[in-house]
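Aim 2, interim progress: modelling of the 6-chloroguanine-bound target.
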Amino acid sequence: MRLDVLSIFPEYLAPLDLSLIGKARRDGLLDLRVHDLREFTHDRHRTVDDTPYGGGAGMVMKPQPWSEALDAVAAQADSRPVLIVPGPGGERFTQAIARELAQRPHLVFACGRYEGIDERVYDYAARDYDVRVLSLGDYVLNGGEVAVLAMVEAIARLLPGVIGNAESLVEESHEDGLLEYPVYTKPADWNGRQVPDVLLSGDHGRIATWRHQQRLERTAARRPDMYEAYRAEHPEA
Ligand code: 6GU
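Predicted structure of the complex, ligand included:
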């Protein structure tokens, strides 16, 4: 998979060298390139922002550096890329969207800062890109970079070969509509706190039933919205 990230803070993306994502890059599973948006400016101050028409607080990202950066990346594309613009005003990024994006050969992330990117850039980009505005959740970050770290990790771990144990992708929170069951490791007695007896029983049927019950209880307590949706899909449960 080819990934391009456009940002005025390319150093923010340094964690993508680490851990499983870094390994996937070194193994050639991910071709991930980070670009400094300021490289596409032409003035002495490498200006990327300006004041908003109509007034109001803050600054707006100028269209020109974006159009040149998007053109440069599109010129290197072998297939029509998806342009992902992270922002609190976007559609909610979910596991289903991560799975959908993991099927695409080329993703480009445009990190906005300040009050956002000039709206005309979205329309301009639609010539060469499938454009998606995506939000992590209902809170505000200072820019798209941290959201890109989250989205790239969620997407890349779904690619074949990125996670050693593909089984660990199956019984996960958000893959089947329930949160995960609680997990324990040795010792069985830790400072007087016991691992539930059923997990020491060796009875795989009872363990599976207990884990499923834990998933239902946890989901009902922590995510009533998910629990209601699950009950609607599984009326027998
Ligand atoms: Cl994707 N970007 C920004 N700037 N803020 C956010 C967000 C994204 N998701 C939630 N808040």
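The domain at 176-233 is CATH 1.10.1270.20 (Trp Operon Repressor; Chain A). The chain has two domains: 2-166, 176-233.
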